[in-house]
Amino acid sequence: MKSIHATLLTHLALPVTSTCLLVKVECVGTYDGTVLGFTNLDIDVDYDDGDGNVTYESDNGFTPRKLAQTSGSGVDDSALDGVIGNGITEAMIRSGLFDSAKVTVYRVNYNDLTSGRHEIVAYGKAGQTQYSELGWQTEFRSLSQLLKQPIGELYSLTCRAQFGDTRCGKAFSWTSGTVTSVGSETDREFNDTSIVSANGHYNSGVVEWLTGNNAGAEMDVDVYTVGAFALLLPMAYPIVIGDTYRVRRDCTKTFDYCKTVHSNTLFFRGENLIPVDGTAMVPGAEIVKRR
After folding, report:
1. Phi, psi of 251 (to 5 degrees)
2. 3-state class (DSSP) for residue 133
3. Angle at 262 between CA 205 and CA 249, to 5 degrees
4. How far apart are CA 42 and CA 64, in angstroms?
């Protein structure tokens, strides 16, 4: 049963009400600790939900879409739309401002903003965020979505650990560099004459940009030849000579790669010796016929 403050409940029973929606977004990851507030009212709203005062901005063009809610175990979902403004930049959105952020939607009486007098309309996390010339759109997914995620581990031929996490036990080894020239695809190809590792050394590795318009963003390496990088996907902005970055090797999660490249088979989290038919359809599967 939903809990609504008695004063607000009395107000909601009136024939005419003065309510608005407030959306509180608590960012994680790169922007951990950043709290954003949006409202569909035409003026800013200062409100304390009990965890501190937040200014809910009206000038971001925030528009909440229809919230689909169920009484069963279905996932409540909606979308939050807005425009760039008030400190929110395109670069921040592209680098993960809303990724997995905690989202709380309140209904309040804007003529009575006494702390705690609100209704929690929805609570969950932000999902996929899209950006266009018109603004941004972020999915809202309720916590019931977590009930649909697998909890236990399944058998797998490849490693289930994330490279560099505590289960893998392998520390990242970064190499810093500076772009000395760019390729024909300026948002995907670049060169650095200071990197002299052998061909293929950084294949499937990760590049993190430290300066320039792409600062804070990461991208997988598709192909590496001595001093030349081709990224798996284009960056949000063109790569420019002088941009600084750091690059590291990653892992293909196969037993052979773990053994020959990282010498880390003691922490391999897969079952690579399980016999499997149709090995061509299963990455990392190998069957050895013994006589």
Report:
1. -145, 140
2. coil
3. 15
4. 14
CA distances to 191, 269, 279 from 282, rounded to whole Å, are 34, 17, 5
Query: Among 98, 85, 91, which residue's Cα sits nearest to residue 28?
Result: 98
pTM above 0.85, yes or no: no
One-letter amino acid identity for 259? K
Strand 35-39 vs strand 244-248: parallel, antiparallel, or unpaired? unpaired
Show the beta-strand stretches assigned E in 232-278.
Answer: 244-248
The residue assigned the tokens 């390496």 is: 221
For the chain, what percent of residues have pLDDT higher than 90?
46
108 Cβ contact list (under 8 Å, min separation 6): 8, 19, 20, 22, 45, 47, 117, 118, 119
Tally Cβ neighbours within 10 Å of residue 181. Answer: 13
Cβ distance 99 to 129 under 8 Å? yes
Distance of CA 163 to the CA centre of its chain: 17
| Half-sphere exposure at residue 216, Cβ-oriented, CA atoms within 13 angstroms | 12
Give the CA-trace dihedral at 154, 259, 266, 207, to 10 degrees: -70
Domains and CATH numbers, the chain: 6-148 (no CATH), 175-250 (2.40.30)
- Phi-psi region for residue 50, left (φ > 0), alpha (ψ -120 to 50) or beta? left
pLDDT tens-place string over residues 148-193: 666 677 788 899 998 989 999 998 999 999 999 999 999 999 999 9
